[in-house]
């Protein structure tokens, strides 16, 4: 085989490595990402309730804080290269116009989704909104099948059914949370807004999963997330400007918020901004490292933790229905994690068998048979190491 042919094969292999994400994901990175999702999801939910409990009422403010923390992603983008020297890839390298356009479009959709979520939350009781938002998991599975050809297995179908049932029981068991004086018109608006938010987020997960197939490293995911959140913030800022949202923030801080302006700006606004950004960034990381349906399942599974957080922080009742709902939630999530573990073991065993067969039946002479080691390396090729490009991918 000529040197030109070898170089061409090596270049083709390198190009494939740059486009496709690694087969063997970093377990430590996955654990850290889910830990951030865990903290961000629970903290943002509790802080969002804190804002409304103590007098906050602006839907545009609630929308704005969900994306305004995008500058925090600059630390994740620039520090690994310039400060920690853990990667040789410069930020925004191979960030194409296609990535930019799709990130901006998804960002505006995400901003509208945040607005629908805030609108629905402002009108509907917690029980009803939980019931409606839980349906996004079913939509996520269906859209994942259509958009990214997600295979429906017993593991993910069983998990979707259990988590949805858990959310339904939780919502039905919290019917006393319905606010007084809720008109039919406001209820209808809140109902449609929450359904729309669930549908858009269910669409967001598989669409980003498909887009991330052209991404070859975790840092690039954060770069796209930065653009998305910036676009979502622009959407929310325009809405606040037309609706007097900025003036509303100052008015609430000085006159309405019961804890005073200092707590308003530090806890209700700043802490909300940080935790929401942590939640969304970790969601994108989960989608990249696993899949859209897995990201949706992980977020829905945290609903049980949000219930416990409400009991601990706000003294919410924790009756029999909520206990059963929490058990179903943990059961569904645990079954899905076990299914992923079993699949990983099968894939690893299958790969080992393929590599063994390739070595045994390649038909190429080895050094012991009188062949040349250099010829053997050229003819058979180097076995791809899934973590060989970890410096650039992570």
- The overall strand count is 0
- Overall mean pLDDT: 78
Query: What structural class do helix, strand and pairing data support?
Result: mainly alpha
Strand content: under 5%
Whole-number radius of gyration? Answer: 24 Å
| Main sheet characteristics | none
What's the N-to-C terminus distance? 34 Å
Topology as a string of helices (H) and strands (E): HHHHHHHHHHHHHHHHH
Number of domains: 1
Query: Poorly predicted ranges (pLDDT <50, ≥5 residues)?
Result: 1-8, 13-25, 362-394
Task: Name the shape in a single word.
Answer: globular
Assign a percent range to the helix content: over 70%
Count up the helices: 17
Keywords: Membrane, Transmembrane, Transmembrane helix, Transport
GO molecular function, one term: purine nucleoside transmembrane transporter activity
Family: Belongs to the purine permeases (TC 2.A.7.14) family.
Region (Disordered): 355-394
Structural overview:
The chain has 17 helices and no strands. It is globular. The chain has helices at 3-19, 27-53, 59-64, 73-82, 97-123, 126-134, 136-147, 154-172, 184-211, 218-243, 245-256, 261-289, 292-301, 303-314, 320-360, 373-380, 390-393. The protein has one domain (23-346). The longest helix is centred in the C-terminal third of the chain and has 41 residues, at 320-360. The model is unreliable at 1-8, 13-25 and 362-394 (pLDDT under 50). With 394 residues, it is mostly helical.
């Amino acid at each position: 085989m000529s040197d030109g042919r070898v170089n061409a094969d090596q270049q083709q292999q390198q190009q494939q490595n740059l486009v496709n994400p690694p087969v063997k994901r970093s377990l430590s990175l996955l654990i850290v990402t889910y830990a951030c999702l865990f903290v961000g999801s629970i903290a943002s939910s509790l802080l969002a309730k804190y804002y409304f409990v103590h007098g906050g009422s602006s839907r545009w403010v609630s929308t704005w804080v969900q994306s305004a923390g995008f500058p925090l992603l600059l630390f994740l983008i620039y520090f690994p290269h310039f400060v920690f020297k853990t990667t040789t890839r410069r930020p925004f390298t191979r960030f194409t116009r296609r990535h930019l356009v799709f990130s901006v479009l998804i960002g505006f959709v995400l901003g509208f989704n945040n607005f629908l979520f805030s609108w629905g939350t402002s009108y509907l009781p917690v029980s009803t909104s939980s019931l409606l938002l839980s349906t996004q998991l079913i939509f996520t599975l269906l859209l994942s099948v259509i958009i990214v050809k997600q295979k429906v297995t017993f593991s993910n179908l069983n998990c979707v059914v259990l988590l949805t049932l858990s959310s339904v029981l939780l919502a039905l068991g919290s019917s006393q949370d319905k606010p007084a004086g809720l008109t039919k018109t406001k209820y209808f608006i809140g109902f449609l807004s929450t359904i729309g938010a669930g549908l858009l987020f269910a669409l967001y997960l598989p669409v980003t999963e498909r887009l991330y197939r052209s991404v070859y490293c975790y840092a690039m995911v954060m770069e796209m997330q930065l653009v998305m959140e910036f676009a979502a913030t622009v959407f929310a800022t325009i809405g606040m400007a037309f609706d007097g949202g900025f003036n509303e923030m100052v008015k609430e801080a000085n006159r309405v918020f019961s804890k005073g302006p200092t707590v308003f700006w530090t806890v209700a606004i700043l802490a909300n901004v940080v935790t929401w950004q942590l939640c969304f960034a970790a969601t994108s990381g989960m989608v990249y490292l696993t899949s859209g349906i897995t990201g949706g399942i992980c977020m829905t599974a945290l609903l049980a933790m949000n219930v416990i957080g409400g009991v601990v922080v706000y003294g919410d009742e924790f009756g029999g229905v909520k206990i059963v709902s929490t058990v179903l939630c943990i059961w569904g999530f645990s079954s899905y994690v076990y299914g992923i573990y079993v699949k990983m073991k099968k894939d690893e065993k299958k790969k080992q068998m393929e590599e063994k067969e390739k070595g045994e039946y390649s038909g190429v002479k080895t050094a012991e048979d009188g062949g040349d080691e250099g010829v053997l390396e050229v003819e058979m090729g180097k076995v791809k190491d899934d973590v060989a490009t970890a410096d650039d991918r992570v």
